[in-house]
Design goal:
Layout lengths: L4 H9 L7 H24 L5 H35 L6 H39 L8 H27 L4 H33 L5
Protein name: Glutamate formiminotransferase
GO molecular function: transferase activity
Keywords: Transferase
């Protein structure tokens, strides 16, 4: 959290295992929410709407959540890597390692799933924020939508990568189903919201 953008992207570009796709998705999600908040704060100067104030506060919570998930994702990945390095010489060691690896994969899948869920929440919030936006700010709603969709798509890939390696296929299927539902919900919003904002930015009837 204390890194500069330059430092974070340099770490991301390195061969180090973290930060990776999950942390990056969370950062992009935080930026998407911030754009929605910006629209809300600008419109507050002209609109006396209690719901607008509430919506801004809800988006602030989403942004803060995304930022916390950057570190949570890195910590969760470490849980899996510790299990991966466990000895596997004896049958007892193999059994213990397999159990810890499953646990590590389940733990590692949680932050990207939370990122996906939060990204979908942000898409809902952006859709509502559109009602309070001026014409000149609809492009920012569209930009936030594009970023939230990117965060959603990127984060679910990280869930699937973890479930793919799980020996417990029932556990994997359950996590995949939850993830699939979140992805479908979020993409349904962006599939209608982004094209409308694109038309608005071009001066066309949305």
């Amino acid at each position: 959290m204390s890194q500069t953008i330059e430092e974070f992207t340099a770490d991301l570009a390195s061969a180090a295992p973290t930060p990776g796709g999950g942390s990056t998705a969370a950062l992009v999600g935080a930026l998407s929410s911030a754009l929605g908040e910006m629209v809300g704060h600008i419109r507050q100067e002209k609109l006396d709407e209690s719901r607008l104030t509430e919506l801004i506060a809800e988006m602030t919570v989403s942004r803060t959540k995304m930022l916390s998930l950057i570190q949570e994702d890195e910590n969760a990945f470490e849980t899996f890597t510790v299990a991966l390095k466990m000895p596997k010489e004896t049958e007892e060691q193999k059994t213990k390692r397999a159990a810890e690896m499953l646990h590590g994969l389940i733990v590692a899948a949680q932050p990207p799933l939370k990122i996906a869920q939060t990204a979908t929440k942000i898409l809902h919030q952006l859709e509502e924020m559109k009602k309070y936006s001026s014409k000149s700010l609809l492009s920012d709603i569209g930009s936030g939508t594009a970023l939230a969709e990117a965060a959603l798509k990127a984060s679910v890939l990280n869930v699937y990568e973890n479930t793919r390696m799980m020996k417990d296929k029932d556990q994997a299927a359950s996590l995949n189903k939850t993830t699939d539902d979140v992805l479908e919900e979020g993409l349904k919003i962006s599939a209608s919201l982004y094209p409308a904002m694109q038309k608005a930015a071009r001066g066309e009837k949305a």
